[in-house]
Design goal:
645 residues; alpha+beta; 6-stranded antiparallel β-sheet; elongated; ceramide transfer activity; Lipid-bd_serum_glycop_C; secreted; disulfide bond; lipid binding
Length: 645
């Protein structure tokens, strides 16, 4: 192979990658030297030398990965060199004058760090064996190597980006699961009472029988358990239950024909059910799959009448058939109850819901639920959106809520992103503006404002007696800050003071900037999360000059009073309704406790059922139509009062 066309610089950086000693002379080895064009050759002592073709700092349009020697296209692939895949030390080199990273020269004084730049020792450069091709294939080999390097560099960021932090997180503990088990057990009893068993008929010799109108009269489910099973399952287990039955008999034995009823009991009933939880395409929690196993240990039938002894002797055929039919009907009944009826109950959880006429809330699940042995965690998007731009997305950079408590039945965590998206949506909707004019302005404040701007008003004669107008407009989306000490909201706004002469355009007297910090009290009432705001700090200043800011100092106290007495009641009235927390209908919170953390807050509470599962399911029994399936993904109108649900 000839030497490079450019003369070798005096301080040309290079790196040696050891190869296997037993390789053929014409082997092709491509070193992981990407970025700028390089000439790779094999030395006499079994080393791969990577030398840059261009002078330092000379840009090259296409990266070049040259081989040590040219080979014929028909040559076989040489054996893989014995280079360890995991070198002992792959830390960035901080000593020495030169190093090699991404095919470019870097010095020890470079400010780039590993992952964004830096120096890798030669032992960290892997050698890749590729088939030898002609000059046409060198460009494709370069693209393959460069693409592989780029994928490896972007892989960590792709993994991080795939995990979007939730704005709202709900944790159900084992105590909450115990309450669900009690209500669920009643629901299972109701479903098993409705079991329908097909008629049983047949004959054995001269004995003919027909069993019909099978009904469940009593259930005893004394030993039951509902447990979490990692990673996405709930396990419902019933042991040693008993089921009492009553059915109509028609029996014929030789010339004897008998009609009547039979009381039977199934004992040692065992039902083992596993429910798999997942999110559907709309981001709603669903029971996606169910496995069931049911068995009956023994069954007895009691006969009455003159031929009772004969029937008891021949009842083996009837009892065996009834036990088989009953065990075959338990799992289908529970499967319908889970995949159809319970999923219709989960449909009552708000996913994309309108809060008021301006904004809505997106409670779609970000991922499948995470189940441990003691908890069930649900990560919700928790993002508000303006109704004028429902497809708008606000990127979440807030701290991810972390719930560690397990004392209460349920915990709901809200990050700063949850509240920031609400205020951002109101800002995008253009409703963070309040106008006061005429009688809405307190008289003492009006007198003070006219005295402050007397000179300007006097020059506007004969409009001296024109009414004043105050317009308070938020200039940027407010920001929420949650600390262990409390929750606050920072607001930047403009306050424009104008005269409004009749039949003439308004005359602006002043435009001042205002910065306020509001304290926020977050509390839960029913299933509605509500916020009560109070003014903590207030500052006004002029946007024109510092001298005018001094002149406005006398307005500081009166304007603060105006905010407290006139503006804050209006804001709190708008937030009075609150926003509903994603819980099924018929389930409410009790004994709520709000705890602040760094970047998020948690609401711990216990649960109780205000309505039974059967009552809610009958109210929302699903109707399998295409229209219903479409409307479920659309935002629902705001409810009259979340606390009434």
């Amino acid at each position: 192979m000839g030497s490079p066309k450019h003369p070798r610089p005096s301080q040309m950086p290079f790196a040696h990658v050891p190869l296997s000693r037993g390789l053929p002379e014409r082997s092709t080895a491509v070193a992981a030297c990407a970025g700028r064009g390089e000439w790779c050759s094999r030395g006499e002592e079994g080393f791969m030398s990577c030398l840059e073709l261009g002078w330092p700092g000379e840009p090259l349009s296409v990266p070049v990965l040259a081989a040590s020697r040219a080979r014929r296209d028909t040559d076989l692939h040489p054996p893989r060199p014995s280079v360890p895949l995991s070198p002992p030390s792959c830390e960035p080199t901080r000593s020495g004058s030169w190093g090699l990273y991404k095919g470019r020269e870097t010095s020890a004084s470079s400010k780039e760090s590993l992952g964004a730049g830096g120096v890798l020792p030669p032992s960290c450069l892997h050698v890749i064996q590729l088939p030898h091709v002609g000059s046409r294939g060198q460009a494709s080999l370069c693209e393959m190597a460069a693409g592989s390097c780029l994928l490896l560099l972007l892989l960590p960021s792709l993994v991080i980006a795939s995990h979007s932090p939730p704005g709202c997180k709900i944790r159900i503990t084992s105590k909450g699961l115990d309450l669900v088990k009690q209500e669920g057990l009643r629901f299972v009893e109701q479903e098993l009472h409705n079991i329908t068993v097909s008629d049983l008929h047949g004959n054995e010799g001269q004995f003919h029988y027909n069993i019909s109108q099978v009904k469940v009269t009593d259930l005893q489910l004394a030993f039951s358990d509902l447990n979490f099973q990692p990673q996405q399952h709930l396990v419902f287990n019933i042991n040693n239950a008993s089921i009492s039955l009553r059915f109509r008999r028609q029996l014929l034995y030789w010339f004897f024909y008998d009609i009547g009823s039979i009381n039977a009991s199934a004992d040692g009933v065992h039902i083992y059910t596993v429910l798999q939880l997942a999110k559907d395409k709309a981001g709603r929690l669903k029971i996606s799959n169910m496995t069931c196993n049911a068995s009956i240990a023994r069954m007895h039938a009691g006969f009455s009448g003159t031929l009772r002894k004969v029937y008891e002797f021949l009842s083996t055929f009837i009892v065996t058939g009834m036990r088989f039919l009953l065990s075959q009907q338990i799992c289908p009944s529970l499967e319908h109850a889970s995949l159809v009826l319970l999923n219709s109950l989960l449909d009552t959880v708000p996913v994309r819901n309108y809060v008021d006429e301006h904004i809505g809330i997106d409670y779609s699940l970000l991922r499948d639920p995470s189940v441990s042995t003691d908890t069930l965690d649900l990560d919700f998007k928790g993002m508000f959106f303006p109704r004028v731009r429902e497809d708008q997305e606000l990127e979440n950079h807030a701290v991810e809520p972390v719930i560690k408590e397990t004392e209460r039945m349920v915990y709901v965590a809200f990050s700063e992103y949850f509240f920031d998206s609400a205020m951002h949506s109101y800002f995008q909707a253009g409703v963070l503006t309040i106008e006061l004019q005429g009688e809405k302005i307190p008289k003492d404040l009006e007198v003070l404002l006219r005295a402050t701007f007397f000179g300007t008003i006097f020059m506007l004669s004969p409009s001296v007696d024109a009414p004043l107008r105050l317009v308070l407009q938020v200039s940027a989306p407010p920001r929420c800050i949650i600390k262990p000490s409390g929750t606050s909201v920072s607001v930047s706004a403009f306050l424009n003071i104008s005269l409004v002469p009749p039949d003439r355009p308004p005359v602006q007297l002043s435009s001042m900037a205002m910065e306020t910090k509001l304290s926020a009290k977050v509390f839960l009432q029913g299933k509605a999360l509500r916020v009560q705001l109070d003014l903590r700090r207030f500052r006004i200043y002029s946007k024109q000059s510092a001298l005018e800011s001094l002149a406005l100092f006398s307005l500081q106290a009166p304007l603060k009073t105006l905010l407290q007495l006139s503006i804050m009641p209006i804001i709190n009235e708008r937030t009075k309704k609150g926003v509903q927390i994603p819980l099924p209908e018929g389930m409410d919170f009790t004994r709520e406790v709000v705890t602040n953390h760094a970047g998020f807050l948690t609401v711990g509470a216990d649960l109780h059922f205000s309505k039974g599962l059967r009552e809610v399911i009958e109210k929302y029994r699903p109707v399998p139509t295409a229209t219903a399936a479409y409307s479920s993904s659309q935002p629902a109108e705001p409810s009259p009062d979340p606390s009434s649900l």
